[in-house]
Amino acid sequence: MSHIHWYPGHIAKAQKQLKEKLNLVDVIIEVIDARIPYSSWYKTTNELCNNKPRLILMNKSDVSDIELNKKWAQVISEKSCCDVIITNLSNKNDINTIISKITKLSEPITQKRIEKGLLPRATRTMVIGMPNVGKSSTINRLVKRAKTKTGAKAGVTRQQQWVRINDKIELLDTPGIIPTTQDDQFQALKLACVNSIGENAYDSEYVASELLKILISKYSEKIRTYYNFKDSEEMTIETIALKKGWILKGYLPDTKRTSQLILSAFRDGRIGKFTLETPEEYDLI
Ligand SMILES: Nc1nc2c(ncn2[C@@H]2O[C@H](COP(=O)(O)OP(=O)(O)OP(=O)(O)O)[C@@H](O)[C@H]2O)c(=O)[nH]1
Ligand SMILES: [Mg+2]
Predict the structure, then answer these.
(1) What's the chain look like in SS3?
(2) What pTM does this model have?
(3) Of 3.40.50.300, 3.20.20.100, 3.20.20.70, 2.40.110.10, which CATH number belongs to 9-173?
(4) Fold topology of 203-282
(5) How far, in Å, from the CA of 156 to the mean position of ligand 2?
(6) How many angstroms does the Cα of residue 136 sit away from the middle of ligand 1?
(7) What's the 59 CA to ligand 2 centre distance in angstroms?
(8) Of ligand 1's atoms, which has the minimum distance to the CA of residue 130?
(9) Hey, whose CA ends up nearest to atom 1 of ligand 1?
(10) Per-residue pLDDT at 46 exceeds 80
């Protein structure tokens, strides 16, 4: 089995910087990826963030399983004891909900400042999450401008950056972090599937073939229809390559290209709206 080396140096630095900024911020927004809610969710955020008021955004809901979105949001809300909002890039309705939740979470802090006779100031909100889950895109949506850099690969944000959304709220964008405590290879595999791990850290043929197995076990009909496979036909990277005509000289299947095409079709939601894990698999229900 191929090993996934998911811990690049810039993440260690980012984790240190995150801890340094903790005392400055009032509220934490944690962004997770709705296609892998369990694997992209920090189970230890409370300890990591000194029990600061927290809101979880389950993002990329446009490319994940609608039924599982609701189920996961409820489970994560119960387990984390904080509100979970289902969000995606093209949804405009969630922006006001996010802003009003931040305001609500910051009320006790504002109240304390008033009691201490301190001047009111904007609520400082730190946006955290694993790489590529959509932290910077969410900030841009909240400010309605491309204030932060975004991109379809892990590690686009390299440095922390403050962004003001109005005179009441400031947001701190942070580089995506995979916790050092996460060494579960199956979770690492799923993080690779959603592009949360830099592509130099893994073998794309291995990740695509494992993704294919998960999709066949969970969404067999949709994936067979997409690649035009009958129930009786075996579906592998090789057979997909041959069927699609992605072949090399000598009629050999081009497994490298096929793997990359399977990964990008999944990541873009072209095959279907898929969620790779259920709460039952993790004994959460
Ligand atoms: N389909 C879909 N794509 C999204 C959504 N939100 C963000 N993206 C895309 O996901 C990619 C990553 O978004 P970013 O905002 O850069 O992610 P990030 O969490 O800031 O990533 P790092 O800075 O690398 O940690 C970009 O290509 C975005 O366009 C969403 O809700 N749905
Ligand atoms: Mg970013």
Answers:
(1) CCCCCCCCHHHHHHHHHHHHHHHHCCEEEEEEECCCCCCCCCCCHHHHCCCCCEEEEEECHHHCCHHHHHHHHHHHHHHHCCCEEECCCCCCHHHHHHHHHHHHHHHHHHHHHHHCCCCCCCEEEEEEECCCCCHHHHHHHHHCCCCCCCCCCCCCCCCCEEEECCCCEEEEECCCCCCCCCCCHHHHHHHHHCCCCCHHHCCHHHHHHHHHHHHHHHHHHHHHHHHCCCCCCCCCHHHHHHHHCCEECCCEECHHHHHHHHHHHHHCCCCCCCCCCCCHHHCCC
(2) 0.95
(3) 3.40.50.300
(4) Conserved Hypothetical Protein Ylqf; Chain: A; domain 2 (1.10.1580)
(5) 5
(6) 7
(7) 13
(8) 25
(9) 60
(10) no
